[in-house]
Automatic annotation (TrEMBL):
Residue span, N-acetyltransferase domain: 14-176
Keyword entries, A-Z: Transferase
Protein name (Swiss-Prot/TrEMBL): GCN5 family acetyltransferase
Lineage: superkingdom: Bacteria
One Pfam match: Acetyltransf_3
Amino acid sequence: MLRIEPVTLSTDLLTLRPLSLAEVPALAKAAGDGELWEKKTTTVPRPEGFEAYVETALKLQAAGLALPFTTVVNEGDRVVGSTRFMNIDAANHRVEIGTTWIAKSWQRTFVNTHAKLLMLRHAFETLGCISVEIRTHARNDQSRAAIERLGAKLDGILRHHMIMPDGHIRDTATYSIIRDEWPAVKAGLERRMAAL
């Protein structure tokens, strides 16, 4: 069985720290950078919805189903988004990395690469996962390209998987990285980090 407990994960540029209600104002401000709630392929709340967003995440954490993080750029201790381990299947040593969003001005920077290295390293090297899943809206080309750059493999499309906040029905692209693939994925991430 996996033992999933709150933890802080850091590189020289980025920290993933346990999500807390104290982060609500900073998260709302980060989401306002690009008005991320307007994007049809994600489910980022409007600023006034962040307290409920964090409370829900913490309830899932208490139930052993999620481990949410605040994404923080170390320089200036700047909150730029959130991510989490979710759909935790402790008996089968599987987690999903999801509910990931990054403020618009920090997209396509070092943030996502560093965050994914931290989470995947924790999942495979500390938690002992045999598989890590990453899902995204099938129409989210930017997210799918980023997932594929990691070296994740497409497992398939979950058709009519979710009803999105605007009412449209989402098909979900499901990817995974398995334990045997982790060394190559890790090496690729480290190369990309060195080049940033």
